[in-house]
Design brief:
The chain has 2 helices and 5 strands; from the N terminus they run αββαβββ. The chain is of the alpha+beta class. It has one domain: SH3 type barrels. The chain has a 5-stranded antiparallel sheet, covered by helices on one side. β3 and β4 form a beta hairpin. The longest helix has 28 residues.
Length: about 100
Amino acid sequence: MSIERLQEIKEEMMQVNQSVKKTVVEILQENICEITFRKVNGEERVMLCTLKDDLLPMQLATESKISRKLNKEVVRVYDLEKEDWRSFRIDSFLDIAKAN
């Protein structure tokens, strides 16, 4: 396999990951879900989270002005059990299910 072909495959994978990320974010904006992903240490984690506006904490004015570097490989969500913001890499995403 050539280096050029490997680069093409890498680009295709990145496009798939972005499509998955967009879908996950859209689902979370409308629902409370259990997200399953693999942590960096290899452990699986299930997180109860959302991006529904009415369930997110109110941001302080100063927080909204803080600019964060956008990472296309990470999904930032609000963890309802920890009551704090958490994130996971989209390439570690395993499953999503609506919470009961």
